[in-house]
């Protein structure tokens, strides 16, 4: 982790917040642009989930992390509290590593 | 002093505190993982204080942790932060009328959760109070969690506790609300497939930038049917 990354990310993130809330506050964003921007989390978070669960570096694989993710998906689907989702997902992976 | 009705104040304060508890847990996990990805305690805390948008911070640490370049970490995190410009437009009327310093400070607190708390209120004065109170509570909780996690992370090995799966688990909790529409689900499926299918063929960190192209499902107008589909 470098300070360059941290500070440039801080500047960019703050600029985006400032852009909407202060700089162009009166502007009506075209609906198509708004739809696309609001779809980024769905696309990117799903990508990050897949990367962090099914890859090690550039290699693909299925290990104890997949079981933790499966439990977390079920907990999220059942609308359980965030704390429960995290403990259930992380705990499942830890237990499998311990006993398998 | 703004005047607002007490039941409304109770509602946005309790909503903020509920989210605040989640922020402490998320922040704690973020702190642990940031340190294990090579950040110092100071760097981890600086990220939460200065960047203050959880998904972007986690995305950047996740890419660095798996060996991606700072440039790809930056790219994914900034793409994720783009939605704050949309939330900012929604929050602009709430900040308008305040002094310039207060608007510059308030902008830092424009995130999904403060927007959600404010959007539940209708009265302009109540919305303003709800923004500042939810912002202060969530900023405090996120940074407290990060500090505790970073200190804890310095003394444990995350994978011993299954914490290496904490990122995908937290991303799962975060993505759920984005899957209510058909477009959201299509974007997510595209993103997940791109990230896995391209991993063997591209430098680490780049496939998730390709995932972001899932946003192009938004080019088509969203029908009423899509919005009500569960």
From TrEMBL, chain A:
Pfam families: AzlD. The keyword Membrane applies. The chain crosses the membrane at residues 6-25, 80-99. Keywords: Membrane, Transmembrane, Transmembrane helix. This is Unannotated protein.
TrEMBL record, chain B:
The chain crosses the membrane at residues 12-35, 136-155, 161-180, 187-220. InterPro entries: Brnchd-chn_aa_trnsp_permease. Pfam families: AzlC. Keywords: Cell membrane, Membrane, Transmembrane, Transmembrane helix, Transport. GO terms for biological process: L-valine transmembrane transport. It is found in: Cell membrane. It is a multi-pass membrane protein. GO terms for cellular component: plasma membrane. Belongs to the AzlC family. PANTHER family: INNER MEMBRANE PROTEIN YGAZ. This is Unannotated protein.
């Amino acid at each position: 982790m470098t300070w360059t990354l941290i500070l440039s990310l801080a500047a960019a993130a703050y600029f985006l917040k400032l852009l909407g809330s202060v700089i162009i506050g009166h502007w009506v964003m075209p609906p198509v642009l708004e739809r696309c921007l609001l779809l980024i989390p769905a696309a990117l978070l799903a990508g990050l989930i897949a990367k962090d669960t099914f890859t090690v570096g550039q290699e693909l694989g299925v290990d104890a992390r997949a079981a933790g993710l499966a439990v977390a998906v079920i907990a999220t689907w059942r609308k359980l509290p965030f704390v429960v989702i995290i403990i259930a997902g992380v705990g499942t992976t830890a237990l499998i590593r311990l006993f398998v | 002093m703004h005047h607002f009705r007490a039941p409304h104040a109770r509602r946005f304060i309790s909503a903020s505190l509920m989210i605040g508890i989640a922020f402490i847990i998320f922040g704690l996990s973020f702190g642990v993982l940031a340190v294990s990805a090579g950040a110092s305690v100071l760097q981890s805390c600086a990220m939460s204080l200065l960047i203050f948008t959880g998904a972007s911070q986690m995305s950047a640490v996740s890419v660095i942790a798996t060996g991606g370049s700072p440039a790809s970490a930056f790219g994914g995190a900034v793409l994720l932060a783009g939605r704050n410009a949309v939330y900012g437009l929604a929050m602009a009327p709430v900040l308008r009328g305040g002094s310039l310093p207060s608007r510059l400070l308030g902008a830092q607190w424009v995130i999904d959760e403060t927007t959600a708390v404010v959007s539940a209120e209708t009265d302009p004065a109540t919305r303003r109070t709800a923004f500042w109170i939810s912002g202060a509570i969530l900023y405090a909780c996120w940074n407290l969690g990060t500090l505790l996690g970073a200190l804890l992370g310095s003394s444990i090995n995350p994978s011993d506790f299954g914490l290496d799966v904490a990122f995908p688990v937290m991303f799962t909790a975060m993505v759920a609300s984005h899957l209510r529409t058909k477009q959201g689900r299509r974007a997510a499926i595209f993103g997940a497939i791109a990230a896995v299918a391209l991993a063997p063929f591209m430098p680490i960190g780049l496939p998730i930038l390709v995932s972001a192209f899932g946003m192009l499902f938004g080019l088509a107008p969203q029908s009423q049917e899509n919005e009500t589909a569960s």
